[in-house]
Write a structure and sequence with these properties.
Order of helices and strands of chain A: HHHHEEHHHHHHH
Oligomer: heterodimer
Number of helices of chain A: 11
CATH architecture of the largest domain in chain B: 3-Layer(aba) Sandwich
Largest sheet of chain B: 6 strands, mixed
Structural class of chain B: alpha/beta
Helix content of chain B: 25-40%
Largest interface: A-B, 21 and 32 residues
Number of strands of chain A: 2
CATH class of the largest domain in chain B: Alpha Beta
Largest sheet of chain A: 2 strands, antiparallel
Number of strands of chain B: 10
Number of domains of chain B: 2
Helix content of chain A: over 70%
Number of helices of chain B: 10
Radius of gyration of chain B: 19 Å
CATH topology of chain A: ABC transporter involved in vitamin B12 uptake, BtuC
CATH class of chain A: Mainly Alpha
CATH superfamily of the largest domain in chain B: P-loop containing nucleotide triphosphate hydrolases
CATH topology of the largest domain in chain B: Rossmann fold
Order of helices and strands of chain B: EEEHEEHEHHHHEHEHEEHH
Strand content of chain A: under 5%
Shape of chain A: globular
């Protein structure tokens, strides 16, 4: 038993899990508001990360300018995507909409490879210190930023849904679009806003991952990890998505520990969350916090 | 603006495939009155309200609200113009608190956009919210639902939920409020309360009321004018007593009953 390694892995799991949770929340946001299962969530991360990387390396902008500009771009990107691709599909069968998002995912994967190449590109150094030690544990400074951003996003979501006019409108729309309209809420506007917020929040996660391990198309694999997280938490629960993300993050690191200590099967990190996904679907198909009557797709 | 009418339907027809839900119906509502639409099940009453509120687009005809043609306008823009409504089958946001349900009704009146909302304390959004909260509290007091304001709407009794739904529609600050069967499924006491609220809304809050209701006793008591629909056609329109006396109405709707109030 190497307790030091165990603690380090659990800490990594919490940090990475918070990022999964953030992406999962942005996935749930779209699902809740517009009932679209977005298979292109990982590509949102990828596009955001490439946009930020491009601003930082090609234009040589400092991080504190390049990052907000990239997020502003993602806002516009989210709205345009919703208006151009998803809005015409309103009222179409669920499977058509899912196919459209799968198509978007493939399209953006290819587009990013065409624009930026297939090799991982490192971010320019953002922090003067690479890693710091907290209570004997090694933590990359970008991971501290990641935790801070994750917490801010969580608080932001909590405030947005409970206290802001648009958050309330979004909850109302998720519940019943007709009624929301009768109360003066523009449903297309709510849809566009949910896609914009989702794209921005995913991009934040994408940039953080990009800073840690470089930007490459492999980054959108994080988007796949969202599925065990949201299935665990319940497709339509924002809090559940966050918890699901953290659980998946810790789970995959624990799996790696078990694997490296005893099993030696290899690659448990990537596979364990999906075993968990299958088990959850068998015993608790609506997740920990999900609504009972939603349709699984 | 035409002073004599706040709302007018002109030759409205609504078809779903081969089914004619409404055929060439015209009527107008005067400012400040309580106007009721009655008729047997399937007569097209709710279809009419849906055409006015914007849920359905009529196949033919026009809807005029305060002198403006709103026939093609989206439901949310109509709400912003001053058209509020409740639904026949309760349509509350069940997981939200009573307070939040009613606050949703204020949505279009709140000016703070997304960016200003982000700068909550700087941008005056807080001051604005205080103002809206005050307006909401006033509505809550008026409808006597203060004791349940923090409760999730889905946990309330049926009569209370109906009241919360009315409160939410009132929060939109409508000039004309459309009530689709406000008293359906209520006991006598709840009906009396609701009738009193509707009269107060009309007289003290100055709202014009258009309602669909099956309880003939209530309709005759509180309506200024009544319109009768049958199979999507207008049978009669006028003062309650005159409409009741109409032989066509008695035959089609009331089944020749001698004591009309017994029908309720």
């Amino acid at each position: 038993m190497e307790t030091g390694l165990l603690f380090q892995l659990v800490l990594n799991g919490l940090i990475v899990g918070a990022l999964y949770g953030v992406v999962a929340m942005s996935f749930v946001l779209i699902y809740k508001a517009s009932q679209v299962v977005n298979f292109a969530q990982g590509e949102f991360m990828l596009i955001g990360a490439w946009a930020c990387w491009w601003l930082l390396t090609y234009w040589q902008l400092p991080f504190w300018i390049g990052f907000p500009v990239a997020l502003a771009f993602m806002t516009v990107f989210g709205v345009v995507l919703q208006v151009m691709v998803l809005r015409p599909l309103i009222g179409e069968p669920v499977i058509s909409v899912i196919m459209a998002t799968v198509g978007l995912s493939i399209f953006f994967q290819a587009l990013m490879k065409w624009m930026f190449g297939v090799f991982a590109q490192p971010f320019p150094a953002i922090f003067p210190v690479e890693r710091i030690r907290i209570m004997g544990l090694e933590v990359q400074s970008v991971y501290l930023l990641s935790i801070a951003l994750s917490l801010m996003i969580m608080l932001g979501f909590w405030w947005f849904f409970n206290f802001s006019k648009h958050g309330l409108a979004m909850r109302a729309t998720a519940f019943d679009q007709q009624v929301a309209q009768s109360l003066g809420i523009s449903v297309p506007q709510v849809f566009a806003m949910s896609w914009a917020i989702s794209a921005v929040v995913s991009a934040v996660a994408g940039v953080v991952v990009g800073v840690v391990s470089g930007v490459s198309s492999g980054l959108s694999f994080y988007g796949i990890k969202v599925f065990p997280a949201v299935i665990l938490g319940g497709l339509d629960s924002v809090v559940g998505a966050m918890l699901g993300g953290i659980i998946v993050g810790v789970l995959e690191n624990l799996a790696q520990y078990v694997d490296s200590q005893w099993l030696n099967w290899g690659n448990m990190t990537n596979i364990a969350p999906f075993y968990a996904l299958i088990i959850i679907l068998l015993i608790k198909p609506y997740g920990l916090f999900g609504t009972k009557n939603i349709e699984r797709v | 603006m035409d002073e004599a009418r706040i709302l007018a339907a002109e030759n409205l027809s609504l078809r779903f495939g081969g089914v004619r839900a409404l055929s060439d119906v015209s009527f107008s509502v005067r400012p400040g009155e309580i106007f009721s639409i009655i008729g047997p099940n399937g007569a097209g009453k709710t279809s009419m309200v849906n055409c006015i509120s914007g849920r359905y687009r009529p196949s033919e005809g026009r809807v005029i609200f305060q002198g403006q043609d709103i026939t093609r306008m989206g439901a949310n823009r109509r709400a912003a113009l001053g058209l509020g409504r409740t639904f026949q089958n309760l349509a509350l946001f069940g997981h939200m608190s009573v307070l939040d349900n009613i606050m949703v009704g204020r949505h279009h009146l709140m000016k703070s956009g997304f960016a200003r909302g982000m700068l909550y304390w700087l941008g005056g959004a807080e001051r604005e919210e205080v103002l809206h909260r005050r307006a909401v509290e006033e509505i809550i007091d008026f409808l006597e639902i203060a004791h349940v304001r923090k409760a999730p709407a889905g946990t309330l009794s049926y009569g209370l939920r109906k009241r919360v739904e009315l409160a939410r529609a009132v929060a939109v600050n409508p000039k004309l409020i459309l009530l689709d069967e406000p008293m359906a499924g209520m006991n006598l006491e709840e009906k009396e309360d609701m009738a009193r609220f509707i009269i107060d809304l009309n007289q003290e809050w100055g709202m014009t009321v258009l309602m669909i209701e099956h309880d003939m006793g209530v309709v005759m008591d509180i309506s200024h004018r009544v319109m009768v629909l049958d199979f999507g056609r207008k049978l009669a329109e006028g003062a309650p007593a005159a409409v009741l006396a109409d032989p066509q109405v008695r035959r089609a709707y009331l089944g020749e009953a001698d004591d009309v109030t017994a029908e309720a």
